[in-house]
Design goal:
CATH class: Mainly Beta
Number of domains: 1
Strand order of the largest sheet: 1-8-7-3-4
Radius of gyration: 14 Å
Number of strands: 8
Helix content: under 10%
Shape: elongated
Oligomer: single chain
Structural class: mainly beta
Largest sheet: 5 strands, mixed
Strand content: over 45%
């Protein structure tokens, strides 16, 4: 499912990690990265943002500035991560 984001709005990404038993766990701090790729017509965007941790939740903030389709993924060592799609309108 693609999420629509209004141009110039701020988006807060939140991620959590679970082990095989479903328990929350923390990957090594400073190793969780949010990657954003937006193929806007005027200004394509590709950024990597380190995520901050609070309790067991990692967050990162991004301001959408390029219109068009895009994708995001969160990476961490020894984890398959997560990913999704969006469109800046």
């Amino acid at each position: 499912m693609t999420t629509n984001i209004k141009q110039y709005n701020t988006v807060i990404f939140t991620a959590e990690f679970r082990d095989a038993a479903g328990n929350l766990y923390l990957p090594p701090l400073n190793s969780v990265i949010l990657n954003i790729m937006c193929t806007g017509k005027d200004t394509p965007v590709s950024v990597s943002i380190p995520m901050s941790v609070w309790d067991y939740y990692f967050t990162a903030i991004w301001t959408s500035n390029a219109k068009g389709p895009g994708s995001w993924n969160v990476t961490a060592p020894d984890n398959q991560g997560m990913q999704g799609d969006f469109r800046v309108i």
